[in-house]
Structure of DUF2325 domain-containing protein:
Amino acid sequence: MCDQEKPSSDHQHQLAVADNSGTSDTTQAQGSRRRRLWDLPHECHCPVIGVCLPLATLRRIVNKSLNGKTVADDYEIHVGAISDCGRRNRLSEALQQELEQRYARTIQLFRTAKTTAAVTRLWLDAIDQGDVAGAFWAALTHPRCDSNLQDGLCRDMHMLQHQAGASVRIDVNRFNALLEQNKLLTRELGRVQERHTRAIAEKTNEIEKQNALLIQLRAENIGKDSSILFLSNDLNTLKAGVPELDTRQRLQKKIEQMADRQTELENQVRDLKQKLSSVSKIAEVADNQAGTDDVVSKTPENNTFPITLHLQQKTVLCVGGRSGNVPTYRDLVERIGGRFAHHDGGLEDNQSLLDASLAAADLVICQTGCISHTAYWRVKDFCKRTGKRCVFVENPSVSSLARGLEQFSSEGKADTASPAVTGKNLETVK
């Protein structure tokens, strides 16, 4: 029961009168016996049967009392039960027993009230708490319930029933509105669940595809790992079967490098031979004769290119040239007071010794016709960095060496090397 109002002002006046006349109430000779259902007046039976007993319970008790199943509706059962409650019979006794059992705890609470005012206070508390069915039966059958309190209880229950009906109508309207809202929310929930189901299905398919791809990749990795393991075992077996395999591999690599170097040198020799063949036969005859002549003779008759300088024990490094002319080169340099050093320009001598020879020399004669590219650029770069005098000659002949020394004599103050006196641009010689 909800939205109950408090009892009327007559009840409040009755409660005040009961407080003022408490002594007289306690002296009433009403005894302690509670009234039975058939002891109540007829106007009390309707609220007792309608409020204190649910319809299902009332129908069950009536069917049991009649030893059968009644076909009457709820209203007819309600009116028939009220009619039988006016006297003691099988149905009224069954209703009395049901009410006593159903509200035994409330009845026990009302037994503590010894005056009418106390009963009234318990009734008002029950109204405030919203539990009036049991309190109505316990107060109505209480020994201290007089006619005034009985009328007040009936009036209060009558108004509470009206309020309950209005509350029920409001609750029904609210319930209907909630039902409509529930339908809308149910439809929306169905759409959301449908979208959610589709999304889950799509994600499930995607996860299955990803899992299948993952399994495939794992299988491929396992296969690759197995292949690597088998190949590693085969390699280890081959290494164990072939002793000193690493050394042989290094030697084989070195042989390949030496073969490449030999091919390069053969190509250089072929190029040099082509250049030598292009020189006129007259120049070759003159160069060969000059190698056997006394080129250091100071008489103009025996020396086409007389040399008038004295090297004063300076070291002359001759880079390149023919190996057969080296003794003649040495004799020429030593006759004019120098010390002779020779490097073949990388054809046979180790090029790593070239830097040491360049550092020890005072004058460098670079014969560009018989020198490797690497040695040529190393000589040029070294002399340019250190400022050492260098004379570049083209032909690997004794006469060319003599002209180079003569050029050194005429350009004693020069800081860097200049092309040979043949007039050709030696920078382009390969």
Observations:
- The chain is about 65% helix and 5% strand.
